[in-house]
Automatic annotation (TrEMBL):
Family to which the UniProt record says this protein belongs: Belongs to the adenylyl cyclase class-4/guanylyl cyclase family.
Superkingdom, natural source: Eukaryota
Topology in membrane: Single-pass type I membrane protein
Gene name, Swiss-Prot/TrEMBL: Npr2_0
Protein's recorded name: guanylate cyclase
A GO term from the CC aspect: plasma membrane
Molecular function, one GO term: GTP binding
Record-listed E.C. numbers: 4.6.1.2
Originating organism: Circaetus pectoralis (black-chested snake-eagle)
Length: 231
């Protein structure tokens, strides 16, 4: 009986760990208690989007298994690195990677700094990821960041997902889609948030036309004066 109880506890821990990989702990706790998870409004968060440059053409030259293996190598690398930062991985959709800081646990004004350091780390890390079927090739990342308000909540009953909504999500996605290879494209709002401690090397990109937003003044995030990415 004692052995069976220990086995049951171990299986329960494994199930909880798996659940916490898919949903924030606070949300998973409410769902386990059959409580309704209320959507929540956040005044300020920072959202990061990235995707692989030329992914469509890379995927076209690979077998399905090779595509999955390549993305798995990349995201295992990313997932292990983002644990060093106060961020929450929202989801991956194909070759797109979405991360947020400032929710579900609020962290004051730290969210822009955490995402900025993480993004510099990931852009450096992607160059070290080996493509199994293209040993001489190297992946390139295109990244975008925006800071602003958003709403977060659980959507769906079967395979529930913790989703973010609002214009901040759309603008962060636009920052990514208008970025360049191995560049981190940031909005004016993120630029302002990063100015507080004068720790970042930032270059003005200028005004660009952004679909659905009109002209926006944007910047390139180049580095951090006091912080070097992990080796």
């Amino acid at each position: 009986l004692k052995k069976k109880t220990e086995d049951l506890k171990r299986e329960r821990r494994l199930a909880e760990d798996l659940l916490h990989q898919m949903l924030p702990k606070s949300v998973a706790k409410q769902l386990r208690k059959c409580q309704k998870v209320e959507a929540e409004n956040y005044d300020q968060v920072t959202i990061f989007f990235s995707d692989i440059v030329g992914f469509t053409s890379i995927a076209a030259s690979c077998s399905p298994l090779q595509v999955v293996e390549m993305l798995n190598n990349l995201y295992v690398c990313f997932d292990s690195r983002i644990e060093s930062y106060d961020v929450y991985k929202v989801e991956t959709i194909g070759d797109a990677y979405m991360v947020v800081s400032g929710l579900p646990e609020r962290n004051g004004t730290k969210h822009a700094d955490e995402i900025a350091k993480m993004s510099l780390d990931l852009v450096a890390a992607v160059r070290q990821v080996v493509i199994p079927h293209m040993p001489m090739g190297r992946l390139q990342l295109r990244a975008g960041i925006h800071t602003g308000p958003c709403v977060a909540g659980v959507v769906g009953y079967k395979m529930p997902r913790y989703c973010l909504f609002g214009d901040t999500v759309n603008t962060a996605s636009r920052m990514e889609s208008t970025s360049l290879p191995q560049k981190i494209h940031i909005s004016s709002a993120t630029y302002d948030a990063l100015l507080t401690d004068d720790a970042y090397e930032i270059e003005l990109r200028g005004e660009i036309e952004v679909k659905g937003k009109g002209k926006m003044k944007t910047y390139w995030l180049l580095g951090n004066k006091n912080y070097s990415v992990q080796n």
